[in-house]
From TrEMBL:
CDD domains: GT_2_like_c. InterPro entries: Glyco_trans_2-like, Nucleotide-diphossugar_trans. This is Glycosyltransferase 2-like domain-containing protein. Residues 411-589 form the Glycosyltransferase 2-like domain. The lineage of its organism: Bacteria, Pseudomonadati, Pseudomonadota, Betaproteobacteria, Burkholderiales.
Length: 691
């Protein structure tokens, strides 16, 4: 591992300023500072680094250092130290610099952000070192937190939260019922029994399906009922002791351990009333109480849930929806119950609590409601599109959707300006490898002046399936796409960059199959860099900027967090480097926004408008292509391009502030500095009694 020595400027003290510029790629810029004393003692701390590699950090060492080293956090990383200066500070100067940085961040935060981070005036200035470290972790690059460190620093419910909760009066009557499915062992009730409230208007009925009858009382505040038989008595859910509030049923498999404040979350979170079905995040706990394997989940993604059961083995369902399930379903698996209930309600009625409300026992697995092939087949057989279930090369379940017959025509639109070295491999890979029988290729020439490129396009005019259109106007990616769609003959439109190459011969079969689902509006593909690293597995808004690719560059064989790089799922957006959409929907939505987003973010904006119209945007890993990102457009490296890029980003922030603040498919407990799905560095989710 590279270790970069830093030189002192002048005499050193326990307070000093590290001012440096570091060059590298992605993980090269995740750095630690190692501080060494005269007697050989050492300590390491994470360094905040900006997107462009700038380090400017006030350090308070426990001893006077004699040597300093920058060290990358990741194995194999190789940062380059461009320039640096390290100088000692007086305590007064150090506090002034920290105060200025904290103030700079604080004044730009919203009131809710200040509350979430516990940055309150003037208390934040009285705990200046803590506040400075906190805002430093908001920088783009910062070393990963271990899970125990995340629990200590960032979990929603803190010891102070529980103190505050104990002093509060509960809201109006509220009822929740626990049903344990397929039970052959008793539910550990310690976590439920420990909930003691001084108010008598809080009623909890717990129903356990098992072979013997027991009754445990929690005073006049909590009633725990263990009922005979294999079916819970749903009529008793409306008994007088539990009326007056929301009628929720909590379904769980044996062995689930709830957090002591699970009931309070439901009692105080008024936003849950708009849902009929709710799941939460979870993790795994061992016999000694050590927690691991946090599952910080996206909001409701039918595509991901179908093959993984990621919603888990504990969830909450309104009593009215529970009664609509058949007796057979009620006694089935967590997967069957949840998926059947989700089909009986609407997508917007399935809610997600981004907090860990329960733990799965380590000896019982990871807590997923993992389905078998037959369970998945039963669920998709209820849908409008015929499909079959198989296993993919990684061992995950895969749904193959049957495409309509005869196959609709796909118009593959490839804009270009010169760049024969990109265009020719792209077009030839489409023509040589694509198994989809009914398609046309439309190459849109945007003022090419390279003789070789023009000659190649002339030969394309003589090829079957290929048309060449001329767009003789200044470069406007959105306008080019709109023009080509208007001229296309296909029922389906595939937007494809000229810097891509087909890998998977059945790429269009896969994308068209998923698009055949009536509620799916857009399908995006899995894209790799030329060196095999993952370039695109969907887009996320907000984390790391306006919009960016999910995961960040990771190895091509890395499955990603929760296997999300290699599993189909719903997302807010996918890139138009390879995107499939119905022509009728493209025209209905109004196409790309050529006025406000001529170059960047037009695909993201289009996806968001499609979702706004009630359709889903889906990523599939089973359509795979190479993508040499933005080769044809180039980088935004001159003042004019930078001004245009700034205008486009500002437009996106004005138009989609809610999604940018909270992308539904990127859990707020994950890193908000960049969309890499690593653990977050600050507390991002407040419990409902603190909001």
């Amino acid at each position: 591992m590279a270790s970069l020595p830093l030189k002192f400027s002048g005499s050193m003290s326990r307070w000093f300023l590290v001012d440096a510029v570091v060059d590298g790629r992605d993980d090269d810029l995740i750095l630690f500072l190692r501080v060494v004393s005269r007697d050989g003692a050492e300590f390491r701390l994470g360094l905040p680094v900006t997107l462009k590699g700038r380090v400017r950090e006030v350090i308070h060492a426990p001893f006077r250092p004699v040597a300093l080293f920058l060290e990358p956090a990741q194995e194999g990383a190789s940062p380059t130290l461009v320039r640096h200066r390290v100088r000692g500070l007086s305590a007064a100067r150090a506090y002034l610099l920290m105060g200025l940085r904290v103030w700079h961040y604080w004044k730009r935060m919203t009131p809710s952000d200040r509350q979430r981070l516990n940055l309150r005036w003037p208390g934040m200035m009285l705990r200046l070192e803590h506040s400075n470290n906190l805002v430093g972790r908001l920088r783009y690059h910062y070393p990963d937190l271990g899970y125990q460190e995340w629990i200590d620093r960032c979990e929603s419910v803190t010891p102070d939260s529980l103190v505050r909760l104990s002093r509060m009066s509960l809201p109006a009557d509220f009822a929740i019922h626990v049903v344990v499915g397929q039970s052959r062992a008793s539910l550990g009730m310690g976590s439920v029994d420990a909930r003691t409230w001084s108010e008598s208007d809080f009623a909890v009925q717990v129903q356990i399906t098992q072979s013997s009858l027991h009754r445990v009382t929690g005073g006049d505040r909590i009633a725990l009922s263990f009922l005979d038989g294999n079916q819970p008595d749903t009529n008793s859910f409306d008994q007088p002791g539990c009326s007056g509030g929301e009628q929720w049923i909590c379904f769980c498999q044996p062995g689930i351990q709830f957090e002591p404040w699970m009931l309070a979350w439901f009692a105080y979170d008024a936003s849950l009333s708009r849902y009929n079905l709710v799941y939460s995040d979870h993790d795994v706990i061992d016999a000694s109480g050590v927690r691991s394997q946090p599952c910080f989940k996206p909001d409701w993604s039918p595509e991901l849930a179908t093959v993984t059961g990621y919603m888990g083995q504990a969830f909450w369902i309104k009593a009215g929806l529970w009664r609509k399930l058949s007796r057979e379903t009620q006694s089935g698996s967590a997967y069957s119950i949840f998926m059947s209930a989700a089909r009986l309600t609407t997508t917007e009625k399935v809610g997600h609590i981004p907090a860990i409300l329960w733990h799965a026992r380590k000896e019982s697995g990871d807590g997923y409601a993992r389905p078998g092939v037959q369970e998945v087949q039963e669920q998709i057989s209820l849908g409008a599109t015929a499909a079959s279930v198989t296993s993919d090369c990684r061992g995950h379940l895969r749904v193959r959707y049957k495409v309509p017959e005869p196959e609709p025509m796909v118009s593959i639109i490839i804009p270009t300006r010169n760049l024969l070295n990109m265009l020719q491999p792209c077009v030839e890979s489409v023509l040589a490898r694509t198994t989809w029988p009914n398609y046309e290729v439309i190459v849109v020439d945007n003022q090419s002046d390279c003789a070789d490129t023009l000659a190649y396009m002339q030969t394309l005019r003589t090829r079957d399936r290929v048309r060449v259109l001329s767009y003789d106007h200044p470069f406007n990616f959105a306008a080019i796409q709109n023009y080509a769609v208007k001229e296309s003959k296909g029922e389906l439109i595939c937007l494809l960059n000229n810097d891509t190459e087909v890998i998977t011969p059945e790429w269009l079969d896969e994308m068209a199959g998923r698009l055949s689902q009536p509620d799916v509006g857009i399908v995006g593909a899995r894209l790799l860099y030329g060196d095999g690293r993952l370039q695109h597995a969907g887009d996320v808004l907000g984390a790391g900027g306006c919009a960016s690719h999910l995961h960040g560059p990771i190895a091509g064989d890395d499955p990603g967090y929760m296997n999300r790089a290699v599993l189909p799922q719903d997302l807010s957006a996918v890139t138009a480097a390879c995107l499939l959409v119905r022509k009728s929907l493209y025209e209905e939505i109004g196409g790309f926004d050529a006025d406000n987003l001529p170059v960047a973010f037009n695909d993201v904006d289009f996806c968001l408008r499609v979702r706004q119209a009630g359709y889903r945007v889906v990523y599939t890993p089973y359509a795979e292509l190479f993508h040499y990102e933005s080769v044809s457009r180039g980088s935004d490296n001159n003042p004019e391009k930078q001004a245009r890029a700034l205008r486009e980003a500002q437009y996106m922030r004005r138009t989609w502030p809610e999604v940018i603040a909270n992308d539904p498919f990127y859990n707020p407990n994950l890193n908000q500095g960049r969309a890499d799905l690593r653990l977050g560095r600050v507390r991002n989710v407040l419990p409902p009694w603190e909001r």
